[in-house]
Amino acid sequence: MPYLLARMSILLLRSHVGRLAVGGLLILGGIIYGLTSHHVNYVPVPQGKYHVTAMTDGTYGFVLDGTDTYYIVHPTDFNPVPDDNAFKNTDGIGEVLYKDEDPQSFVMHNDDGSQVNSQELTVVSFTLTSSKDQKEYRFTTGDYLSHPDGFDDNRWPVGVLVAALGLGLLGFFLMWPAMQARRQQRQNRAFMPVGPQPVAGTPSFAPPSVPYVPPVIPEPGQEWRN
Predict the structure, then answer these.
(1) Could you tell me the keywords of this UniProt record (predicted)?
(2) Would 194 be classed as within a structural domain?
């Protein structure tokens, strides 16, 4: 797929119309990306029975039985940092909050070699209970502590930057033919001969040739007569 996109980009940039299309697409893409700005809320996971799965990338997933949706915990984002013992020694999972965003798709590889198309969402806060000491342990991310009511995902700065880049490229590509024409004119002027040139259609006449006559030198004793 990346190779195909690279080939398409090269083909577009080789033609004038393609270059204009690239600039227009960047402008449109920047505006659309900016319009996707939204407020992100933290919402609790659905009610049900959950189990914890250790992922191969070092994260953990809360999985509702009978579903393929994983609520992912990135340990290094939490305070305190949860480890294997925190999940193994728990007797129950309390409240779990996650970012209310579009889920990301991924392929889950099971121990039996099978693969399952799954979805993941990011957890920002969860609690684990322990019957051993009758305590409840709460783990939260820095983002959740800073913005417990959610936050605004403002994508306009990046969108404006992309649109401005597209606008600049579009203007440059529009002026490119005129720039090339002026450059060609300067090159033609540099090779033009200097001085007056005969008018086209006017015959040119070369002066008649005069035969060479050697001078006459008188001999001694002779007078010079003209």
Answers:
(1) Membrane, Transmembrane, Transmembrane helix
(2) no
Is there a domain that residue 147 lies in?
yes
Q: Residue 51 domain-assigned?
A: yes
Q: What is the 3-state secondary structure (H, E, C) of the chain?
A: CHHHHHHHHHHHHCCHHHHHHHHHHHHHHHHHHHHCCEEECEEECCCCCEEEEECCCCCEEEEECCCCEEEEECHHHEECCCCHHHHHCCCEEEEEEEECCCCEEEEEECCCCCEEEEEEEEEEEEEEEECCCCEEEEEEEHHHHHCCCCEEECCHHHHHHHHHHHHHHHHHHHHHHHHHHHHHHHHHHHCCCCCCCCCCCCCCCCCCCCCCCCCCCCCCCCCCCC
Tokens (6 digits) for 140: 């939260």
Please state the domain count of the chain.
2
Give pLDDT tens digits for 63-85: 998 888 999 999 999 989 998 88
Does 6 reside within a domain?
no
Among 146, 145, 147, 127, which Cα is nearest to 137's?
127
pLDDT digits (tens, 9 = 90+) for 118-151: 899 999 999 998 777 778 889 999 989 999 888 8
Residue 49's contacts (CB-CB under 8 Å, 6 or more residues apart) are: 64, 65
Asked if 115 and 107 touch (Cβ cutoff 8 Å), the reply is yes
| Domain match, 56 and 136 both | yes
Q: Do 88 and 15 belong together in one domain?
A: no
- Domain containing residue 149: 40-153
